[in-house]
Each structure stands twice: as C-alpha cells, then as structure tokens.
Write a structure and sequence with these properties.
Elements (H helix, E strand, L loop, with lengths): L9 E9 L8 H10 L3 E10 L10 H14 L3 E4 L5 H11 L2 E3 L1 H12 L3 H16 L2 H4 L15 H40 L4 E6 L5 H9 L16 E7 L3 E7 L9 H6 L1 H8 L3 E7 L5 H14 L7 E6 L10 E4 L5 E5 L8 H12 L2 E9 L4 H9 L3 E6 L5 E8 H11 L7 E8 H9 L1
Parallel strand pairs: 1-2, 1-3, 3-4, 5-7, 5-8, 8-9, 9-11
Antiparallel strand pairs: 6-7, 10-11, 12-14, 12-15, 13-14
Helix pairs in contact: 1-4, 4-5, 5-7
Length: 443
C-alpha cells in the first residue's frame, strides 16, 4: 500500500529557513540523515519563509521549483527537512509525481534499517504504525469516491476501515509483546538494584562517539560508524571501577533535534535504562561547531523521558580533532568531576574517565585487614573475585593475613550473602570516605 524508496536512489532535498525557532532544522544534519539511509542527494532546494504554507508547506512557486528540479535531475524522491501533514505530502506528491518523505518518515526508516534485536524491531514497527495511522487517507485517495444510492459506501471508505482495523490490531499485539519484554527488563533492573550494582548509561547526540567509547571501555564489538543512528539497540556490559566494584555500562540510542514523538513513546521501555541509571555519561562531540545546540537537544529529550534529574558527567569526546586538545578533568567548586576531555578513538584520557567514575560513584571505602583460617579458603577466593586484595601473607598459625580495600556496599553485600561470621575475621577496620582518602593523598 505504501511506496518505499530503495537504497541508492536519487533524492532532492528541501530545506526551508523559518524565522520561528521551533521550525529551524540543520541542513548538514539532513544530509547526514539521507546518507545514513543510503540515498544519494543530487540537489538541494532552499528558501526562506515566515510560516509553513497550508497546502504545500512551501509556497506555490517553490513547489513548482521543486517539481522542476525533480524532472531536471531525474530524481526518484523528495525529502523535506521538516514534518509535513498528510495533506501537504499528498499535494507535493501530485505536483512532483514522485515519492515525498518528511523528516519523521526518514528517521523512522533509518531506525528500521538499524534495528537488530527483537525488542528494537517491535519498537520501530510500533512507531511506524502510529505514524502511518494518521496517513491512511493519502494511500487510498483514488478510492475515496462515494457511490450513488441510499446507504451505499464507496470502496475507498471500506478499504480505509479495513486498514484502520488491521493497524489497530497490530498495534495492540506489538504493545502486548513489548509489555512482556519490558517486564523482563524490569526484573533485570530489580536484580541489579537488590545487589546495589551501579548502572552508568551513555547518552548523547547521535554520532558523538558513544559506541566507540563503549567499545574502548568494555572491549566489546558494538557496531560503530561515522553515521547517524549507527547504534539503535541498547547493549549492557559489566565494567570494573576502582573503589566501586562491578558496574553496568549501557550504550543507548543517540538523540537528535526534534526526535519524533512516536519514536520517543515507542522507545520509552528501552530508555528506562537511562531514566533509572545511577549516573549518565553525556558524550559530546566537542569538535562540532554546534555542540552547544546538540547538548540542549539531548537535555530536552532527557526531560521528555523524565531522566533530567539523573546525575550526569559530561564527556567531551574527539579532542584529537582540536588544535590544543589535551586529556583532562574539569572540577566544580566542591572538587567533584563535571567534565572529562578525551578521545575514545585514539584512547586518550579514558583512564581519566575511570578516575572520574570512581569519584562520582564511590561512597565510603572499607580498608580491612583479615586473618582467614585455612578452613575458609572459599572466603579468600571471594575476595579475589572482587579484585579487592591489596596484600596477603601467611602467619605462623597457618592463617592468611590479607589487606583488602573495597566499597562499603560490596562489603555489606558480601556479609548478606555469606553471613555475619565474616566480621569475626576482621582484625583492623580503617573505615574512610573518598573525600578523606583524597585529602590524605593531597597532604
């Protein structure tokens, strides 16, 4: 019923400059979106307007100019860098005699190409169905004539009712399946919460380098490329942070200006990983001239998904593209890390990021000395699993004397799992906070 373009087709891009800030879009970003979708841009039509035209979105003369450009360049598709109404799309298709897409449809198509997991495919299909449900009329405009006679209906009206019913049934099915997947994710989050495992979620504008940083930190092999929305499906990996222990690092979908509302709604289950994270790593492409606007766009999406209250650490990525880019950490007046400057691709400053994570995530530190009898070899093995042993030696009675340093939450979790008897082996408990440790190091 709905036509779809093929990869490699020729497209005419349309970008209108509006005085209204709410309608402003970035032309360079549109070109990246089109390239990411696999379409070739052969011409760009631009022009200024105060407000969108009711019939064509652009003016009548500009619509004729677009149609002439399509014929001259032998283009197969017209792509607007704006959101058009169903009527405006239909009118532009009639005058251009080719497929016309708006910005929302283009983004949805890119998401459909990138989806790999079962959940991701369901979420994208749900967003596409919501988008199509308001555009059914333009698909059957040639069948919307009424027959004569009392109580007679035209074939177009019957077909529309059938399509609406099928769409509604499919949407209900997808929501039901997503609810099951969401319940599984919720169980995983509850398990991490019970075990007090911190979750760090990567967020940022699309193509800021989140997946590259994720691969650098976790040695994973998540797909990373210089294109918009290279990563769609969320990926979780375990990482180890000094004085904190095991953490979960989550790589999520990139954000973009004016992200379609249907997409935000469909991906709320996935974005819940961001909303319930312990800390957000806001990755920023500092080599981009418009990075401040990109930061504002990400902040806006975070507020839409109720994640704007989650603490975050700014990661200024791609410093290798700056003339005087040096890895460093910026601190606030209280000495807390607020920005880390690094290059994920060149592996510059990643160690500083771990240093900042330790400062932001760790609370109270246990520096303990234990005397473990030979019968408690399992306990010694548990400390090795936690990677918290700093030193060990054996004394005359055969006991193993070990010095450990671990997060207070890990110590409490160990006691809960193994029993309070562990505390019997403690012979020295030097209980400190991170601030006290830093002060000692400074003096």
């Amino acid at each position: 019923m709905f036509e779809r373009y093929e990869a490699g087709e020729q497209a005419v891009l349309v970008h209108i400059s509006f005085t209204d800030e709410n309608n402003k879009e970035d032309l360079d970003e549109l070109k990246l979106l089109v390239s990411s979708a696999g379409v070739n841009s052969v011409a760009t039509v631009t022009g200024p307007r105060k407000t969108p035209h009711a019939r064509f979105f652009v003016g009548t003369g500009k619509a004729q100019e677009i149609a002439e450009t399509v014929r001259t360049m032998e283009a197969d598709i017209v792509i607007f860098n704006h959101a058009l109404s169903p009527a405006q799309l239909r009118n532009m298709e009639e005058i251009c005699e080719c497929l016309v897409l708006d910005r929302t449809a283009l983004i949805l198509d890119i998401f459909a190409q990138r989806a790999r997991t079962y959940e991701g495919k369901l979420q994208v299909e749900l967003a596409q169905l919501h988008y199509m449900s308001s555009r059914l009329v333009r698909g059957w405009s040639h069948l919307d004539k009424q027959k004569g006679g009392v109580g007679m209906r035209g074939p177009g009206e019957t077909q529309l009712e059938t399509d609406r019913r099928l769409l509604s049934a499919r949407i209900t099915t997808i929501k039901s399946r997503l609810a099951k997947v969401s319940k599984q994710r919720e169980q995983g989050r509850r398990s991490r919460l019970r075990n007090e495992v911190p979750t760090v979620s990567l967020v940022g504008y699309t193509n800021a380098g989140k997946s590259t940083l994720f691969n650098q930190i976790t040695e994973a092999k998540v797909y990373a490329a210089d294109q918009l929305f290279a990563t769609l499906d969320p990926t979780l990996r375990k990482i180890s942070v000094d004085d904190v222990g095991t953490c979960i690092l989550a790589d999520t979908v990139g954000f973009i200006r004016h992200l379609p509302h249907d997409l935000v709604a469909a991906f709320k289950a996935t974005l819940q990983e961001t909303r319930e994270a312990t800390l957000l790593l806001h990755v920023v492409d500092c080599s981009d001239e418009n990075y401040l606007a990109n930061v504002e766009a990400v902040d806006h999406v975070l507020s839409e998904i109720d994640a704007d209250e989650v603490p975050y650490l700014m990661v200024m990525n791609k410093i290798d593209a700056l003339e005087e880019g040096e890895p460093r950490i910026d601190y606030d007046d209280l000495g807390n890390p607020i920005r880390v400057w690094l290059s994920a691709q060149k592996d510059l400053g990643v160690d500083l990021l771990f240093e900042a994570l330790t400062s932001r995530l760790s609370g109270k530190i246990r520096s303990l000395q234990l005397s473990i009898p030979p019968s408690q070899g399992k306990l010694r093995a548990l400390f090795y699993e936690l990677e918290c042993i700093e030193d060990e030696s054996y004394i005359e009675n055969g006991h193993c004397l070990i010095n450990i340093r671990l997060n207070h939450a890990d110590w409490q979790r160990l006691i809960k799992q193994e029993g309070n008897y562990i505390e019997e082996f403690v012979i020295d408990d030097n209980y400190q906070t991170v601030e006290e440790l830093e002060k000692e190091d400074w003096t």
